[in-house]
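Lab notebook, bench 4. We co-purified these components, and the gel suggests they stay together. Before we commit to crystallization screens, I want a quick structural picture of the whole thing.
Request: model the full complex, all chains together.
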Amino acid sequence: MDLSVQLPGLNLKNPIIPASGTFQFGREFAMLYDLSVLGGCCVKSITLEERLGNPLPRIAEAPGGMINAIGLQNRGVDFVREKELPFLESYDTEVIANIAGASIEEYAEVIRRLNGVDVIKAFELNISCPNVSAGGMGLGTNPETAAEVTRVAKAAADKPVYVKLTPNVTDITAIARAVEAAGADGIVVINTVPAMRIDLRTAKPVLGNVTGGMSGPAIKPIAIRAVYQCAQAVNIPIIGCGGITCAEDVLEFLYAGASAVEIGSENLVDPWACPRIIEELPAVLEKYRLGSVKEATGKALPKAQ
Amino acid sequence: MKDTNAIVLSNVRIANDVYKMELRTDIAKEAKPGQFVQITVPGFYLRRPISVSWTQDDVLTLVFKIMGEGTAVLSKLQPGAETSVLGPLGQGFPVTAEKEVVLMGGGVGTPPMLKTAKAYLDAGAKVDVVLGFNTAGDVFYVDEFEQLGITPVVCTMDGSAGVKGTVLDGVKSAGITADYVLACGPLPMLRAISSTYTKGYVSLESRMACGFGVCNGCVMTDKNGMAVRVCKNGPVFPIGKVVL
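Here is the predicted assembly.
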């Protein structure tokens, strides 16, 4: 079974990529399985300076998933470049560097400091994080700012640039078209859905940040819808993301128009989720009489009928 | 760390909202004092982190308090029920060559101290145990410590059982002089212990998603301003290391 997918900058041996924020920089998972089985991997969001993240609690349960408000905790780009990324050099997997910033210029500066780092095959712009006060989702909910950060990032980057979109907009296709026009090489659809919970005993929000981002199986239908709509709006490849727990879920995203997928929360409840799904995938494709991953992409779209 | 199927052998209420569950799982053979596991709750997405209280061959004993919907469901699991357990997780209590130690447990911070007490007894230490609860109906595990040959000093905030006051009041009342402490309990208790003792370890509790260091959901800050993950770098930390 041909699981391979070729995307700008990314020669994926299979379409499975652990999503940013659920993979750190690979060390913890490398103790559990060979990272070279992964098509690619997307590292934790990188900002210019170190960020300590949001106050605790940062995690809340929600039916069919979870809500997080980590707040882009990371050691800053220079530390990540020197101390974290070299670890991934010994694995045969395509590394995507997820970039975040409080301003458009910060995205460009982080990218400039990561240019020339060979282990990175592509950048992913996080303009969709709901858990930071500046930048993040604020940039991704407006087509003009989304396009502007894409343009600036493309001008700075020596590698292809993917843009990770938020579902928290009235029309995600408008954002998708705007970043495509600004030069994005691909889009990642979707980031978490803004959400919150309240503790009945204290009558206070559960999360220290009050609101957070919902992920897990409950958001999969939202993500499928967003991928399906974006696939009809743009011609650049789409990496689907949102609530995937098994190979059948992967196929649903492929049918909706995704070329590859990112797997997030499931890594947190099943640390072996990615290798398990990679192993399950050929049989699921076979079951639905598909000869390859590529053949499945977009099968549900009107134009393919 | 591994993910194993686990069979519930027993699940009984031992105090107000507190349950003791025995599970058959291979993880029991590997778990060290102060480590924890992530247990799958039927119908819930995230696992629940619960400290290892005791192990005997392939039987793992967990003690938990009903804190929300997930632990409520966990309390209703019947013998024979199957679930999955990820673990053992985190850094437990180091077993050092101290001659004399005092172990303190507050509320549902008590369970991990049982296996820890056994480890220190086996290492030849004199072990004193002080347990703190809010009220008499919350008290549990006195018999379990007695089976190890330790008579725990029980304290309750309302004085309805044992010494009235905190675990530190219990230490004073019992004249315990050990200067090496191992403790698990609520933050105010750990803060008080950290300002009284300089040697030993404290075990922290936190909401978490993964339990193995990748989500950054349980991060606290150490005294140098560095982030530490309760699940991976802890839950047991040297006393004074983490800003509480």
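The two ends of chain B are 28 Å apart (CA to CA). Worth comparing against the SEC data before the next meeting. Chain B touches chain A at residues 1, 3, 40, 44-47, 68-70, 86, 206-210, 212-221, 227, 232 (CB under 8 Å).
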